[in-house]
Write a structure and sequence with these properties.
Number of strands: 0
Number of helices: 8
Largest sheet: none
Helix content: 25-40%
Strand content: under 5%
Radius of gyration: 27 Å
Length: 178
């Protein structure tokens, strides 16, 4: 004789949650190389490929390949040179870098324009308009006001927010900044 149906239903979990089934024979790469970088690596002429210089430092070799040694490190440590030495502000980067990457690294884009400012959200517009109303364009005083600047935005962030507010507020909230 079997047990009762009620006891079986009570002992069973109510929600069935499982990880998605994996296909064992399907390989997905961990990351995708940009097509221009892949073309550089897959060149048929081995002489034109960048080579590792055993005499140079690791950072110099990485720079010759167009790679940062540690993109997450913004602090200066004793074993690394100053970040200003690694990235030249006048360097417009190689042609292998996409415009988005150049914008992130602070380099000059191919078209020569900086990244366009995004329109502010409604809440951001309210907060920034209060700051502009009280302080005008004095970003240092905006930064010091902890009541109106509750998010503790830095001076540079406040400057960007104010530029975006003025840009989009003058021509409507969904204007094209170009």
């Amino acid at each position: 004789m079997g047990g009762s149906r009620r006891k079986y239903k009570r002992s069973r979990t109510k929600v069935r949650v499982a990880l998605p089934k994996r296909k064992p024979n399907v390989f997905k790469p961990a990351f995708c190389l940009p097509p221009k970088l892949r073309a550089l690596i897959d060149q048929p002429d081995p002489a034109s490929r960048p080579k590792w210089d055993p005499e140079g430092t690791v950072i110099q070799n990485y720079k010759s390949f167009g790679v940062l040694s540690n993109p997450n490190s913004l602090q200066v440590t004793t074993d690394q040179p100053e970040p200003a030495e690694l990235v030249d502000p006048n360097d417009d980067g190689s042609d292998l870098e996409e415009d988005d990457l150049k914008t992130t690294l602070g380099k000059k884009r191919r078209d020569g324009r900086p990244a366009s400012l995004l329109p502010l959200t409604t809440i951001q517009r309210v907060h920034v308009s209060r700051l502009i109303e009280k302080y005008g364009d004095d970003y240092q005083r905006m930064f010091m006001d902890t009541k109106l600047n509750a998010m503790q935005h830095s001076v540079a962030t406040l400057e960007k927010l104010c530029r975006s507010h003025v840009l989009y507020d003058d021509a409507g909230s969904h204007a094209n900044p170009r």
